[in-house]
Design a protein that fits this description.
The chain has 116 residues and is mostly helical. 74% of the residues lie in helices and 0% in strands. It is built from six helices and no strands. The chain starts with a helix and ends with a helix.
């Protein structure tokens, strides 16, 4: 049995005796990932994995944002700059803040990083 198999079985277990170990694993999950990232043989693998997770989450949020039901659809070739600035951008910012919280946090963390 591999460590990965063990973790998967532990997390899927409904046995109450495993609950404490499951809680501990969940609470320390980010610390485990940090240790793997700091280990030179695993750094690239963890980076690729993390990038894939973030891309999947952000991609899903962006798809949700551009649904016609969210009224963020517009025709780029007929949109005028003034329309975008006055009407669309404030609406977009509010929709992103409410409906795509990961995208919102990423945008602000990148903006903060550019100020440094």
């Amino acid at each position: 049995m591999t460590i990965s198999d063990f973790i998967e079985q532990l997390l899927q277990s409904t046995d109450k005796i495993h609950q404490s170990a499951k809680n501990n694993l969940v609470q320390q999950g980010s610390e485990i990932c940090t240790h793997l990232y700091q280990y030179s043989d695993a750094c690239t693998l963890i980076s690729v994995w993390a990038y894939g997770v973030v891309r999947e989450v952000l991609g899903a949020e962006i798809k949700d944002l551009v649904w016609k039901e969210n009224r963020l659809h517009f025709h780029a070739n007929s949109a005028m700059t003034e329309q975008l600035e006055n009407l669309f951008m404030p609406q977009l910012a509010e929709k992103i803040r409410r409906c795509a919280s990961t995208v919102w946090r990423l945008m602000f963390s990148l903006l903060e990083a550019s100020d440094e």
